[in-house]
Structures are given as C-alpha cells and as structure tokens.
Amino acid sequence: MKFLIDNWTLVAVAVASGGMLLWPALRGAAASGLTPGNAVLLINREKAVVVDVSEVEEFAAGHVVGSRNVPLADLERRLPEAVKNKTVPLILVCANGGRAQRALAVAKKLGYDKAQVLAGGLKAWKEANLPVEKA
User: Fold this and answer.
1) pLDDT of 25
2) Could you tell me the pTM of the whole model?
3) Which of 41, 29, 58 has the alpha carbon at shortest distance from 69?
4) Which of 18, 49, 89, 128 is least enclosed by beta carbons within 10 angstroms?
5) Residue 117 in 3-state DSSP?
6) What is the dihedral sign for C-alpha 30, 35, 40, 44?
C-alpha cells in the first residue's frame, strides 16, 4: 500500500495507458453489427430478409443479391409492405453502415425485434468477396 501512495503518478499512468489500450475494443463492441459471414449464415439458416436502405441509384449500382430496396427516407412507410413477417430476422444494409444504423431504430420501433445492421455495409460485403448484383 505504501508503494501505491508513494508512486501514485506511476499508478495513474499505468491505469490511463491500460484504458487507452482497451478503448478501441470497447468502442468497436458498441458500434458493432453483423459480420458478412454471420449475415450469410442468418440468410441461409433462418431465411433472413436483407433490406438495403440506400437510395434507388445506389441500389441500382450494386447491392446484396436478393435484397429489397427501401430508401431510409421511406422506411417507416414502406418497410411493413416490403417485409410483412416481423418475426423473421431483418438485415439492414447501406453503403457503409451509417444509414443502416439509423434505420435500425425505425425498424425496432415498427416491431422488427430481430433487425440487425450489416457492420461496414455493402463495402464490407464486397471486401468479403460475397456476391453483388446490379439492377
């Protein structure tokens, strides 16, 4: 105990450096979503529905195979008609994941409790060499 009191600055520096080392891991866990590999498993095993919240032009340029396009601005109005069954898993996708994160709150509000975001969006999907189609 005397060592801790006499060397409080060393202890403070050690605690601060440990916190800085852990920060990226903690921040990454909070902002995480579904990995492309886990998304494929969810699609294949649980018949998850992929909803792309990108604009129509972006969707036409390239999207996850079999996904449905419901732009973020129309999500609250059009999601119930695009995905009628609220019990199936829902995977929200956009170019990088930012809009999909905002769409997650809307989907949860509408009762899609199994909604998840594809972490990294379409960019991560392409980097994982998964199939993309153009409209």
Assistant:
1) 61
2) 0.76
3) 58
4) 18
5) strand
6) negative
